[in-house]
Amino acid sequence: MEILNEVKACVLCIQNEKDEFLILERSHICRLQGWCLPGGRIEDNENKLLAALREAKEETGIIVNVSDVNYIGEEPSVKGYMVGIFHIKLKNTPEVIISEEHEKFEWTSKPFDFNLAGNTGIYIEKILN
């Protein structure tokens, strides 16, 4: 598969004060099953950071300060385009309100114990390194 250099999607890795990762289980309506980070496609006239923040808000109800978010880098998706990876460490565990795209959520210190969708494990490893 040819990898396109263009970043077409972003994820926001959210960690709480206990260093737990917020992961979401995709619902049956999604093609790619398993657990993932909040994220999705970049819309027209939107930059990578704004896309990551918008997707996190839409999928979890969590709103974060732009200045607290770190850009980690880019990795290919299983679909062949690049994904921008962002990270934030929160001071408290916020309430999570998931969208219809997901069945449930977990705060976990062991994300690799879950059936991670696509390249989610690679994105988390990039944050840990």
Lay out the secondary structure:
Blueprint: E1 7-15, E2 21-26, E3 35-36, E4 39-41, H1 48-60, E5 70-76, E6 82-89, E7 102-108, H2 120-128
Parallel strand pairs: 1-6
Antiparallel strand pairs: 1-4, 2-3, 2-7, 5-6
Features:
129 residues, alpha+beta, Nucleoside Triphosphate Pyrophosphohydrolase, four-stranded mixed sheet, three-stranded antiparallel sheet, 7 strands, 17% helix, globular
In short:
By secondary structure, the protein is of the alpha+beta class. Helices cover 17% and strands 33% of the residues.
User: Which fold name corresponds to the CATH topology?
Assistant: Nucleoside Triphosphate Pyrophosphohydrolase
The string of secondary-structure elements, in order, is EEEEHEEEH
- Largest sheet, described in full? 4 strands, mixed
Q: What share of the residues does DSSP label as strand, in percent?
A: 25-35%
Number of strands: 7
Report the CATH architecture: Alpha-Beta Complex
Name the CATH homologous superfamily: Nucleoside Triphosphate Pyrophosphohydrolase
Number of helices: 2
Q: What radius of gyration results from the CA coordinates?
A: 13 Å
User: Any idea what the shape is?
Assistant: globular
Structural class: alpha+beta
Strand order of the largest sheet: 4-1-6-5
Whole-number tally of structural domains? 1
Distance between the termini: 26 Å
Mean pLDDT: 92
Low-confidence stretches: none
Question: What percent of the residues sit in helical stretches (DSSP H or I)?
Answer: 10-25%
